[in-house]
Amino acid sequence: MNLKNRNIWVALFVGPALFFIIFYLLYPSIHTIILSFMDRRSETFVGLKNYIYAFTSRSMLTAFRNNLLWLVVFTLGTVGLGLIMAILADRIKYERLAKSIIFMPMAVSFVGAGVVWKFIYNYKPPGVEQIGILNQILVLFGADPKGWLIQGPWINNIALIFVGIWIWTGFCMVILSAAYKGIPKELMEAGRVDGANEWQIFRHIILPSMKSTIAVVATTMIVNVLKIFDIVYVMTNGNFGTEVIANRMYKEMFQYRNYGRASAIAVVLFLLIIPAIIANIKRMKGEES
Amino acid sequence: MSRKILPRVILNVVIIGFMFIWFLPTLGLLITSFRPAEEVSSTGWWTVFNSPLKFTQFTTENYREVLKKGGMSTAFKNSFIIAIGGTLIPVAVAAFAAFGLSRLHFKGRGLIYGIIISLLVVPLQMTFIPILKIYNTLNLSGTFAGLWLAHTGYGLPFAVFMLHNFFQSLPDDLFEAAYIDGASIWTVFYRLALPLSVPALASLVIFQFLWVWNDLLVALIYLGGFKDVAPLTMRLSSLVGSYGQNWHLLTSAAFISMVVPLIIFFSLQRYFVRGILAGSVKG
Fold it and tell me: Does any domain span residue A251?
């Protein structure tokens, strides 16, 4: 195989991917950064105006607050529940069935999941028969039904976040379960023989062995949660104080046709994601060496 | 032994409770989708368990209505068209690239691979406005082709990453032997690398298919207001607005959008899990 021939092959194999990457990711990202310093029609340079808007406007501040709430509750929820299920399911006979059920929501769309849960959260005024199961349970215990998706800022945001947890816990469970099964059983047995209780085994054997996997899963969830869009779009469309950053970007782009602001919000989103990814890469490199 | 019974009971109660909470929402959706309109709006779906064997309380009318009037049958067809193109093109392009980058030795391949992988960090939001502008001048917005190509661009970094890892794990001797026997690069790719990577390709295809099938955002951006090309997710989300409290219709529409992913999930779960493990944990 001569050199000239090989270069043609290289171009044929790698060229198409390079084209797509440049056209769909590299070039537009750079262009968006430029647009973020321009006005709504991308005609005149406006300096930092769009960024000032992105960091000071009321709706953006609400979005930041909500994303932060999502970040904490969603990440702790998915990773925590995923870890609990990974460890507990290992001790039962119907492990596969249990894991399938927890994992199933991962297959359906966020839009579908949004409709599923909107129905769960359905609200009818007190006195009328409830058709949403959550309010039916409240009524059964003698309480008044709640407008789960309307009462802000805590109830509706947590209600939305729980939908995210319902979807992603299975993902965390699958990865954490693989890591858990990789811990030598003798290690835990030795601990038990030495008189350690289950909590001590969890704390001193399981947790340290799974540390890096937990970190990878948690960063993946953090990146996910920063980009969260569909659930909010379908269930509340950002009303009642449930806005998140990605929804703000969409609204600025399509509802208000303000490309400058939309671009600035996209850049902010990008900047928020970078630290999480860098942490991941650093840890991977650390493990390699 | 009795000391061990209580923890066992608690363990099972916790797990079954979990399974119950995770399964209940989908079950409620499925039951509601088969109940007549007036029942759905006046009583909870759990009341069907009062007389579980009374099959006359169920109907398929809701499905007929959303498929026809709700436009879900067109949307179903569109979702298939979008997902098939949006899966085959990126997987093919990624397979070529991953092979070239891992098995053809040329200058700068590490750099190119690094650039592709580093673009995993770019949130899609960073790309929408410039591409939409170009799409509008090329008349690509509102077309299947536009969406296929966009999903190709967006899916590539992950796909290349996954296949590159796989190709690199294949033994070098295998390829050297083939070249010594006089095989061309194309033959090595087509007859050796591809067949060996069927498991990895299967995982990737399932992943990409589900990703495209379930995507809402990319479709919203590039299909805009073009109703006749809208996939299920878009149609369903606009029904949420227009049907409001017509839960008998919304639930059946939602279930229609979930059928294909659920079938794929339950029949190919193994590949699905393998893909997740290959994608997110190193090694």
Answer: yes
Residues B277, A86: contact at Cβ < 8 Å? no
| C-beta atoms surrounding A209 within 10 Å | 16
Distance from CA of A117 to the nearest CA of B (A): 7
Number of compact structural domains in chain A? 1
**Tokens read off for A120:** 């769960």
At residue B281 the predicted structure's pLDDT band, cuts being 50, 70 and 90, is very low
Q: What is the CA radius of gyration of chain B?
A: 24
Rounded to a whole number, what is the distance in Å from the CA of A164 to chain B's nearest CA?
Answer: 12
B36 within 8 A of B248, measured Cβ to Cβ:
yes
Tokens of A216: 């990878």
**Are A107 and B210 in contact (CB < 8 Å)?**
yes
Domain contains A63: yes
Give dist(CA A154, CA B144) in Å, integer.
40
What ipTM was reported for this prediction?
A: 0.89
The string of DSSP letters for A130-145 reads: P-SHHHHHHHHTTPPP
Cα separation, A108 vs B220, whole angstroms? 18
DSSP string, A47-79: TTHHHHHHHHSHHHHHHHHHHHHHHHHHHHHHH
Residues 21-80 of A with CB under 8 A from B: 21, 23-29, 31-32, 35
Asked if residues A145 and A139 have their Cβ atoms less than 8 Å apart, the reply is yes
Q: Which of residues 205-244 of A touch B (CB under 8 A)?
A: 213, 216-217, 220, 226-227, 229-230, 233-234
Distances (CA, A) of A47 to A38, A251, A264, A278: 7, 22, 11, 28
pLDDT at residue B3 greater than cutoff 70: no
**Is B141 in contact with B135 (CB distance < 8 Å)?**
yes
For the domain B65-280, what is the CATH code?
1.10.3720.10
The predicted model scores a pTM of 0.91
Tens digit of pLDDT for each residue in B163-201? 998 898 888 888 888 888 888 888 889 989 999 999 889
**Domain ranges, residue A89:** 58-113+156-288
Contact A100 B266 (CB under 8 A): yes
What is the rounded CA–CA span in Å between residue B43 and residue B35? Answer: 10
User: What is the distance between the alpha carbons of residues A238 and A233, in angstroms, rounded to a whole number?
Assistant: 6
A143 interfaces chain B, CB cutoff of 8 Å: no
CATH number at residue A83: 1.10.3720.10
A69–chain B nearest CA distance, Å: 20
Other CB atoms within 10 A of residue A90 CB? 13
CA B41 centroid distance within chain = 32
Which value, to the nearest 10 degrees, does the dihedral of the CA atoms of residues A80, A86, A92, A94 take?
Answer: 110
Q: How many CA atoms lie within 13 A of A247 on its CB side?
A: 25
Copy the structure tokens of residue B233: 């997710």
